Task: structure prediction
Amino acid sequence: MRTLTVPLTLINLQDDGFHLLVEIVVFGEKQFAVVDTGASRSVFDKGLMEKNIVDLAVSEETQAATIFSTSTTLLGVIPQLKIGALTLKSYAGVALDLQGVNDTYLQLGHPAIAAIIGGDILMAYQAKIDYQKKLLRFYK
Result:
């Protein structure tokens, strides 16, 4: 089994908790994503998906909850998603409006995010988080 190691950034949410950010490459651009072990699946910013995918479909399950929001979901295929050395091709992406999250992050001096990496990817690659070393490990 091959191990892929990706650096994490720990951000402080006004001394009231922390989020882990990971750098991703989606639609050929470097972006940040929150690593959320409590999210059942990964989601991407609606604006980013609308800008880059022509054939978006409204999900039959119109409500999807994350730790951030509840809203209508859109579905589309992301040609390539990179999380460090992990490359996912033709990833079936779910889009949610992450603008509120980004407004809050920017107000707190943190970078905007393009996605939330959730349980679908974390489980598929048996991900492990090393908080002390600030690393995310995928096992392929």
Notes: The longest helix spans residues 99-107. Residues 62-68 have pLDDT under 50 and may be disordered. The domain at 3-139 is CATH 2.40.70.10 (Cathepsin D, subunit A; domain 1).
